[in-house]
Amino acid sequence: MGLVVHPEIKLALRIIKKHSLKIPIDFDTLVSEYANLIYKHIPIEGVDGVSLNLKVPGKRPTIVIDSNLPKTRQLFTLAHEFGHVIIPWHLGTIVDEFHSEYYNYIVYSELEQEANRFAAELLMPGEWILSEFNKCNFNLSLLHENVVKLACVSDQAAAIRLVEKLPPHIIYIAEKNGKVIHSGKTALTHLSLQEEGSRFDNECYPYFDTYIVFNAGSTHYHWWKLSTKIEINVDGAETWREILDKIVQTIQPPMGNDTFKKSINGIIAHANGKCKGEEDYSIDSVVSACIYRLRRSDLKDLVSHPDFEKFVKVRVLDFFK
Questions:
Q1: Span 7-123: which CATH code?
Q2: CA 84 to chain centre
Q3: pLDDT tier at 106, thresholds 50, 70, 90
Q4: What does residue 169 show for φ and ψ, rounded to 5 degrees?
Q5: Domain boundaries, the chain
Q6: Cα dist. 263→38, 99, 186, 266, 320 in Å?
Q7: Please, are residues 161 and 124 in contact by the beta-carbon 8 Å criterion?
Q8: What whole-number distance in Å separates Cα of residue 280 and Cα of residue 58?
Q9: If you ran DSSP here, which 8-state letter would residue 89 be given?
Q10: Considering Cα of 95, then 99, then 100, then 104, what sign does the dihedral take?
Q11: Residue 1 pLDDT > 80, yes or no?
């Protein structure tokens, strides 16, 4: 089954095709064909934009954008409000209260999510992102910089959009003053990201094909293309149970040996189940998924044990028997 394309994204693609839009888009001219556009200060804290008279018979829609916003935020807000105008089932008056430069699928209502998806597709079309990815010869730092400059968006908005559209096994960590401020990973990338607010660990992901940094002022975006094949020597006659028992005896987990072993086996079984539905399902793909998922701060004793990788490989081989 293919990926679901939301109707609001289809609408954005129709607008792109209808107007032969190219990056960067002249949004003021575009939006003015569909609605009255006003830039003025909105004296209500947190309100970035307002859409009035949506689908009201005899009345032309009006969009108001807070003129005090930074330019990149104004642009996203305008694209978002334009979504309310274009999406047929968005009616009446909508006051948009943004809590970040981009969007958060959890906080907003379904209407807001739809307008966000519409805006993201207009500002940074998926096909354009992949085209730029190929032009940059897979240089993720250069790609990130180009999207920021060409699409006139914030570095955070560009990072979020990139992990929505790029191939699997790509992650980023945004770090400022040694702290993680946000992060993301592409679809089908099986690993635990460093937590927001935690101390940034540059050595958290040691298995990678490429690693590069994009500097956006005082914020540093660390990009990894993760390896999908991790070389592990499993010579010897030990079973995975024997290896795990030896590891547990060494690290003495606080939760108790049996509970710990069940937890580890559960994580590995879950990773295997996730990988089974993917086209590249193989021993290598499951091994890498398990290792990435287990590389968590609360499992550092397990991960640092010299037999950790050997255990994972032998455990996965048992699945494939």
A1: 1.10.10.2910
A2: 24
A3: very low
A4: 75, 30
A5: 7-123, 126-226, 240-320
A6: 56, 37, 26, 5, 21
A7: yes
A8: 55
A9: T
A10: negative
A11: no
Q: Is the pLDDT of residue 107 over 80?
A: no
Q: Where are the beta strands (DSSP E) in 24-91?
A: 36-40, 47-54, 62-66
Which of 103-134 are b and which e, b meaning 16 or more Cβ less than 10 Å from the residue's Cβ?
Answer: beeeebeebbbbbbbbbbbbbbbbebbeebbe
Is residue 228 pLDDT above 90, yes or no?
no
Instruction: Retrieve residue 266's tokens.
Output: 């559960």
Q: What is the pLDDT confidence band of residue 86, given thresholds at 50, 70 and 90?
A: very high
d(CA 157, CA 309): 36
DSSP state of 199: B
Q: What is the mean pLDDT of the chain?
A: 91
Q: Please give the C-alpha separations between residue 95 and each of 42, 61, 103, 304, in angstroms, as whole numbers.
A: 11, 13, 15, 51
Contacts made by residues 133-140, CB under 8 angstroms, sequence distance 24+: 133/166, 138/210, 138/225, 139/212, 140/170, 140/172, 140/210, 140/212, 140/214, 140/223, 140/225
Give the DSSP per-residue string, 291-305: HHHH--GGGHHHHHS
Distances in Å between the alpha carbon of 51 and those of 70, 80, 95?
A: 19, 10, 6
Q: Cα separations (Å) of 308 from 189, 305, 316?
A: 21, 5, 13
- Please give the full DSSP string across 248-282, using - where no structure is assigned: HHHH--TT-HHHHHHHHHHHHHHHHHHHHTSTT-S
Question: pLDDT value at position 128?
Answer: 97
DSSP assignment of 105-151 equals: TTTS-HHHHHHHHHHHHHHS-HHHHHHHHHHTTT-HHHHHHHHHHHH
Q: Are 208 and 202 in contact (CB under 8 A)?
A: no
* Helix, strand, or coil (residue 170): strand
Q: Dig out the tokens for 81 from the structure.
A: 């409000």
Give, as one character, the DSSP assignment of residue 41: -
Pairing of strands 179-185, 62-66: unpaired
Neighbours of 160 (CB within 10 A): 22
Calculate the CA dihedral of residues 91, 92, 98, 103 and round it to 10 degrees: 0
The amino acid present at 211, given as its one-letter code, is Y
